[in-house]
Design a protein that fits this description.
The chain is mainly alpha-helical. About 75% of the residues lie in helices and about 5% in strands. A hairpin with a 4-residue loop joins strand 1 and strand 2. The protein is flat.
Length: about 140
């Protein structure tokens, strides 16, 4: 059982290994980044629920636990969406550079941006571009 090499592949025992192309490598990297984005949302959501459960069970902190849960869950979703947008951009630029894929990327990014804005408004109660003005109004006596 030896190693046999030719220009296009390497054979080790009964298994043949072929070199990956650049696009295949980037495609695999994009899949890992997508999995990380999904993992961030799943683990962040689970963490938000685990953090909120004890507060919801105590009478003294029960009233604020729901708002904290929503805020932490929204943060996890926002971070996961940002990572997924990165994966979509890399895929479109490097792997699949057709006009159709660029259009699909544009639609996906717009949808995710709208989701991000709505989650931020849900968390903070104010549009992101009005946050600074609200902070100034709250500090002025």
């Amino acid at each position: 059982m030896g190693i046999y090499k030719d220009r296009d592949r390497t054979r080790l025992g009964g298994v043949t290994f072929s070199p990956m192309t650049y696009e295949e490598t980037i495609s695999d990297v994009v899949k890992v980044v997508e999995a990380c984005g999904a993992g961030i949302m799943i683990l962040g959501g689970l963490g938000a629920f685990l953090a909120a459960a004890p507060r919801a069970l105590r009478a003294g902190t029960r009233s604020g636990s729901y708002d904290d849960l929503r805020r932490n869950l929204s943060r996890a979703i926002l971070l996961g969406l940002e990572v997924l947008i990165v994966a979509d951009i890399v895929r479109t630029i490097v792997v699949d550079t057709t006009l159709e894929s660029v259009a699909v990327l544009g639609i996906i990014v717009v949808i995710r941006i709208l989701l991000s804005f709505s989650l931020e408004v849900e968390m903070d109660g104010v549009w992101p571009w009005r946050r600074r003005r609200q902070a100034r109004e709250e500090t002025i006596p």
